[in-house]
Amino acid sequence: MAQITFIEHDGTEHSVDAKLGSSLMLAAVSNGIPGIDADCGGSCSCATCHVFVHSEWQDRVGEMNLTEEAMLSLSPDRKENSRLSCQIQVTEELDGLIVETPEFQF
Fold this sequence. Notes:
Ubiquitin-like (UB roll)
């Protein structure tokens, strides 16, 4: 297990234990994290699991693939640290990961 902290746009924090090998999106949905809609169920085709990865974790979450890049290009809230949580696999290295959710998922 890895502990992940999700911070809502209003600052409310939710720390959850995420199963190793699962996606960050699945950890959020399984734990009822507000702000992660995950409409496509993790197939990288909707961008409703958008998160902002804290800067100290960006190098550890892995590279963005072309499909994720395309999905995020549709988001008006995209930032430098934007990622789709369905594309981040939970590993031991991510124990302590902190991400923020946008106010709205588009």
